[in-house]
What does this fold into?
Amino acid sequence: MDSSPNPAVTSLDADLLARVARGDRGAFSQLYDQSNALLFSLAFRILGDREAAADLLQDVYLEVWNKRVRYDAERGSPMAWMVTMTRSRAIDRLRSRAAKGHGVTDPIDNSPAIQLTDGNPGPLETSAGNETRSLVGKALAELPEAQRKAIELAFYQGLSHSEIAAKLNEPLGTVKTRIKLSMDKLRMVLRPCWEQ
Amino acid sequence: MAHEEFEQNVALYTAGALDPLERQALEAHLAEGCQLCLATLREYQETAGLLPHGLPLTAPPPALKGRIETAALAQVLAQPAVTNTDATLRTADVDATLRTPDPPVVVPSGDVTIRLPSQPAGTPVYDATVRMTHQQAAQAKAVSGPSRQWPRFARPALAAASVALVLGIGLYAYSLKSKLAAEIAHRQAIETALQQHTLLAGVLRQKLTQAQQDLVEFKQRTLPALQDQVAQREMDIERLRTQVTQKEQELVVLYKTASPKDEMLAMLQSANVRVLSLAGTDAAKSAGGLVLYDPERGKAFLYAFNMPALPRGKVYQLWTITTKPVSAGTFSADTGRKCRHLAHSLPAKSGITKFAVSVEPEGGKPQPTGAIYLHGSL
It folds into this structure.
């Protein structure tokens, strides 16, 4: 519990997760410090509610701590794993909320599709994370609006391509192609981020 | 579904855009270990994992970390019940392995005598070495038979079996011991944590007691004093409120006194104002007065002096006279026997020629009935 917060790190050490899996509380604390800002921003973006996002993060970290989920290096980097897990839990919660009849807010209608970073470091940002953030921001900004919106609807609202097609009243094939194209572009542009 | 189609779907899968059926199909394909798809998946997974970096960073509530760590610790502390039982079982196993002679299988092997552990029903399988040992033991038991007489040709085989047994049991015991050591270390860590928390709880309990004592003391000593002060303050406030009311009343009086003066000043500034002096009649020889009369606005201001004292129940009444007297209000004198009176609503441009003041019963009269004290003409 002595590590200083480092909220905008872009990668996690696989060894850190291994130490957490062995029950190392110091490592658990470090894992939180290094990933909470990104994961909270993600959960908050999906759920649109700070309290719900905090509850979700608690569940995610405890799942890792209790080894109910285990990191598999085959499936990507530790940070990508944590992001995937947080996103999928948040989307599950969003769906169950919708199933219970709570109105699902549609943040896309009142906020930009994906907030683009303005290049100025915010209070939470570190220079280490800035490079990745500006690269991701630039990559997203360079996508055509329709592609960015499709990615947004899928990734942050959990809509499948057929749901997106229905929502936007566009052919299914067009939506699929858009998502595929945008993911391909992002993969190419962002490759340096994980190949460093 | 063809492999190409799966590969196509990997990008949509990582973006979270597949329909449930497609997702399940792709996951099944990945589970089969398709290396091509897995390699593609890794890259898209990294790409998708970077997407949240495009979001504005939002800090979680500061208390969240503590909440998560407490929950994690609570789970660690809740585990020993299971771990203990587990450890006890293992200890028992070790003991059984090392000591229990029931039923002892004595295997003579040269000078060495080995005791084998009994095999309780449902014993967990630990590892291959142990299983081998048990099998060999069973074989050895079968071979030994009831007479425990060993054919000479069997002795080398038995000796080999015995060596394997010794090694096996040694390994078994070693494995159990190291597991036990790890368990003990784990429990020690938990106990240390528990001690720390007990300590912390003690400190918190002390603080709570202190806070409770402070509260009691506050209730007993400080609170009554404060209540007294509050009562005192309330009395002060009441006193001040009375004073304020009094001052307000005085202010009203002052305002009333002041306003005729102001009116008089205003009237003096008016271009149309006429001035006439009033002379005392025989009934009030030393009295005199002055009327400022503004015919345009229908206002008149009277100032009189040396007025005879008013008998009880009487007032002065001002009259304006055109053809006959019309009342312009009643008034009384101040301590210096001076009078100030403002008549507001005289008929405008009404051709008033005379002003007079008489003494009348309280409330005034429609026509003069008492003695006239002052009179004057324009």
User: Anything to note?
Assistant: The helical segments of chain B are 3-14, 20-31, 35-50, 64-78, 80-98, 128-144, 155-269. Residues 237 and 246 of chain B are 14 Å apart (CA to CA).
